[in-house]
Amino acid sequence: MTARPRFETVDADRPGPRLVTEPVRRRVESVDVLRGIVMVIMALDHTRDFFGIFGANPTNIATTTVPLFFTRFITHICAPTFFLLTGVGAGLSRASRTPAELSRYLITRGLLLIVLEATLLRSLAYQFNFDYQVTLLIVIWALGWAMIFLGLVLFLPMPVIATIGLALIAGHNAFDSVSWNNPIWSILHRPGFVIQGPHTVFVTYPLIPWIGVTAVGYVLAQVYRWEPDRRRRFLLTTGLAAIVGFVALRFINVYGDPFPWSSQPRGPVYTFLSFLNTTKYPPSLLFLLMTLGPALLILGWTDRGVPQWLRPVINYGRAPFFYFFTHFALIHLLAVIVTFGIHGTATWMFQSPTLGQYPFTPPPEWGFSLPVVYAVWVCVVAALYWPCKKVAELKATGRYPWLSYF
After folding, report:
1. What is the pTM of this model?
2. Which of 15, 25, 139, 276 is the residue whose CA sits 20 to 30 A from 358?
């Protein structure tokens, strides 16, 4: 057969991925390390959800504190980067799969993620119950649809895929003023209810522009066919341009986010926080420029070689779904143990929450200071290092093809 190209990481004398002609693709470490970084940071936000002071809104500029705001702010990079790298990973897979094979894989994996989000993740990680009174369709659900979308459009020419992705990212804020209380609109653009009643289903992650971010990531993977110096220049220049674009558009305060920044009575520091406080649900153009710019800079920086001190996070990046499920379950389990220790019972942790309480019903006077949140976060990440390393090693052997879905 005709060998399809693959990419491999070469030795220290010639660092970075290069194009070769063998039918198997090894992983690109700069992609894995960035994915690992965002997986580690992501756990901080979820730890805060379960252990932080209940009801404290980190993005409410009128009531937040600077440490609380930035504890939330640094985690904003996670979801956009994960969607982008999902597309990059699919684009790199073109080296070892035909378009038809890749399309089947993406659609099948996407459907699996959608089902798991609405069933096992919701029951065994988020809420610890099986009553399905409240179901939020969040990041894994949207990621599944992003894979399905990519599986359908990857047969198009790369410039067309790039145009579609960029149009969804740059143009969706033009529809911010549309107030349509319809499940279809909630699924596509604006968070809202799909089902209301004894069993509530609420969309937190509308599909647009997330599917566009994944499509752009798919096209971005083509830079790993370029000569290394050219690739690094592109990643660094594009990342810097995204950050500059964010600052310029946010300063103009006309387009790119449904909520403009404003001068704050609490002083210039909080005015600066207002400037940074862009919209995540759904992610505005400014939110994506603000988060994907640094992500591209990290890709460019680590393309020459991953620093030794960063190498441990690669294991998290190579077992993303396993890490996602287990870190949520572990954080929730720790919250159950602490609740039982304080109250002698933990029934609250197994009750279906209201939408305002999601992901759990808090016990009375529940919540801990940020130092406690950070300490629990470090313990959770450390506890999952060896399990993720083992899963990554098993996936690398190729003996368990089904693990590629996780």
Report:
1. 0.92
2. 276
pLDDT more than 70, % of the chain: 93
- Domain interval for residue 17: 6-405
Share of the chain above pLDDT 90, in %: 80
In a domain, 125, yes or no: yes
Domain membership of residue 153 (yes or no) is: yes
Residue 81 lies in a domain: yes
**Residue pLDDT, tens place only, 329-349:** 999 999 999 999 999 999 999
Is 1 inside a domain boundary? no
